[in-house]
Sequence to fold (323 residues):
Amino acid sequence: MGRPYTGFDVIAGGKRAGFETFIDLLEAHFGLWNNGTFGVRKKRGKSSYSVHATGRAGDLSWRGAPYRGPGNYEAACKMMDFLAANADALFVEAIFDYYPAPHGRGWKCDRADWQVYSKPAFSGAPGGDWVHVEVSNDKADDPQYYIDTMKRLLGEPPKAVAPAPAKKTPSAPPGKKPWLQVGSKGAAVKKVQELVGADPVDGDYGRKTEAAVKAYQAEHDLHVDGIWGPGSDKHAKNCTCKPAEPAPEPVASTKIGTKAEFPGNMQRGSRGEHVKQVQSKVGATPDGWFGPATERRVKEWQKANGLTVDGVVGPKTFAAMFG
Fold:
């Protein structure tokens, strides 16, 4: 049994210094080139967000001239073998290889092994000339860790790699009001915390509040940066949505009339009328889209009612809600 796989968790405010340095070092040692890291986008053909949005995922291509890759798959295999063999030390959680037939292959930390996919698992396979790499949150913001660890495992890189600069929280631009960010305090922060469902509501804009703001921004198609600025504030004032409500108290499950029919698992990315019913039950905005805020409310409801806290409305959670 391997380590738990994180996948998508929260949208990052930008590139993360530890992961960017790791990608730079892989480029230097193996000759592949950075084909894209951080980006807030959905998975191709799906409604759920890509792990690229977390700042913990990147693509490295072996495509040759006129691109700067080595032009051979063997170089990519050498890098992938290294990543899989040292996954624990490097906090690697996933490696996806788009090249092999019939549908590519993948290594994940929760099984600690490769799997050749027998049916479509991601677009671009087979034949894709890039490798997708994901790491955990543990060292994603720690560039020096990756410099020291890669040096221990491989020695000095063929070319110097400087640590990626740590992301700085921007200061308020002139004339931009409100502008609340990590470090802000006061009654205005409390109002924002109540609106986005942050916990605790203490008037101190910390990392938990930032994460809740990012989730709110993502769910309402706003610019996701974790800063409560004029755009987010204007949307909140004009939006018909209601502030997040406290999680419901535990209640005894009772059956009234005909038992509701389970429509199938509902989780992040699900849409429709059944999602609206779940949102109304847990105190989320009933807009029919199962986004980050709805997932958070479902987890709170599950915890309050003694259920497995996974944010997924499966058969047991559905029965407790509507049985």
